[in-house]
């Protein structure tokens, strides 16, 4: 894991349907926030807001594991 990273993970409902994606925000290896996002565009918007607010660059990772 990078020092400053945003990690996106797909989630699934009990019947196997895709749910919202889970987004975790890490700085210096510590989780500082998490969000539920509708799509990758929403995640990128949040990432850019963190970069602007904290004045640091975040790496972006996305897992596509299926149930």
Describe the structure.
It is elongated and about 40 Å long. Helices cover 22% and strands 39% of the residues. It is built from 1 helix and 4 strands, in the order E-E-E-H-E. The two termini are 23 Å apart. The longest helix is centred in the last third of the chain and has 15 residues, at 40-54. It has one helix at residues 40-54, and strands at residues 4-9, 21-27, 30-37, 59-63. It has a 4-stranded mixed β-sheet with strand order 3-2-1-4, covered by helices on one side. The model has no long low-confidence stretch (mean pLDDT 89). The chain is α+β, with helices and mostly antiparallel strands and 67 residues long.
The value of Rg in angstroms is 12 Å
Instruction: Please state the average pLDDT score.
Output: 89
Order of helices and strands: EEEHE
The biggest sheet amounts to:
4 strands, mixed
Shape: elongated
Low-confidence stretches: none
Report the helical percentage.
10-25%
Total strand segments: 4
Strand % is 35-45%
Q: End-to-end distance, in Å? A: 23 Å
**Category by helix and strand content:** alpha+beta
Counting copies of identical and different chains, the oligomeric state is single chain
Q: Order of strands side by side in the largest beta sheet?
A: 3-2-1-4
Note the total helix count. 1
């Amino acid at each position: 894991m990078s020092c400053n990273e945003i990690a996106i993970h797909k989630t699934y409902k009990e019947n196997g349907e895709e749910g919202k994606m889970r987004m975790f925000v890490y700085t210096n290896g510590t989780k500082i926030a998490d969000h539920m996002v509708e799509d990758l565009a929403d995640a990128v918007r949040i990432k850019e807001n963190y970069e602007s607010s904290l004045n640091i660059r975040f790496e972006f990772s996305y897992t596509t594991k299926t149930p």
